[in-house]
Every structure is written in C-alpha cells, then in structure tokens.
Amino acid sequence: MNTYFPKAPELQVSAWFNTDAQISLASLKGRIVLLHAFQMLCPACVSHGVPQAQRAWETFAQSDVAIVGLHTVFEQHDAMTLPALQAFMREHRLSFPVGVDQARPGESIPATMHAFQLQGTPSVVLIDRLGRIRLHHLGYIEDLRLGTMIGRLLAESQT
Predict the structure, then answer these.
(1) Which long-range contacts (CB under 8 A, 24 or more apart) does 87-90 make?
(2) Model confidence pLDDT, tens digit, residues 114-123
(3) All domains of the chain, ordered by start, with CATH?
C-alpha cells in the first residue's frame, strides 16, 4: 500500500530565538521535525502546547528529532511583540528554537500558518525524514501518543 504524504512547505520566519542560525526545513531534511505552533496569549498553548514542546526538546534534543517552535500571531497583533515573546520565553524557560511566523501585509494570518493551513493554536505538525507531513493536529495531543508517533517515524527507513 502506497500512501501519499504531502511535502511540507518551507518555514517563513522573520526572527529566531534560541538559535544562532536560521532554520529551514531543507536544512533539517533527514531528521524528524516536530513543529509546534503557538501564541503566547493562547491559554491552551501556555498550559499544554508550550510545555509539551519543552518536554519534547528535553527528551529528543540529542537525537534525529528537531523540535521547532513557531510563534504564529493571527490575533492581538499589538500585544505580541518580539520583546513580549522574549520575556514569555524567559519566564517559561523555553530552550528549543522558536521562529516568529512572518506577517503577510494586509492579512491577519501569517505566512507559515497560511502555507501549512493551520487552523489555530496550539498546532502540532510532524514532518518525516523526507520532508513530508505525517501529522497535522490542532489542539492538545497526549504526550504518549505524540511520542509513539515520533518513535514510529524514527524507526522508518529513510527511503
């Protein structure tokens, strides 16, 4: 059985935190990518999504799994500034790389959120070693389920 998995679009990020280099999905090809989209003023992101991304970072940081946060602002734009995000990340002790989704002039939905067709936050996207989307999930996902899916992707061959 041959299943089709769509290729992940490239990240469109205006600023990065917790990394010295620009991150692209092309540069992560060959690794599993866990993309965690959040907003710092989203209650479910603060209570579930962001802590889950930090736990995943602590669990998989030295493996073939890349954890990437995406701060994607589609509401309350004036409150979610770069200094506010920086303070939020410091307060929550986030150590995984976080990109700021690039704004689209005249649009409320930022570029990466639009390209991935994310419906809100928190959202989790799992990308396999070949750059294909294997999970596209809005809302809370249990750690055990997410870990199992990552484990399955790690066990797959790279072809």
Answers:
(1) 88/40, 89/17, 89/18
(2) 999 999 999 9
(3) 13-155 (3.40.30.10)
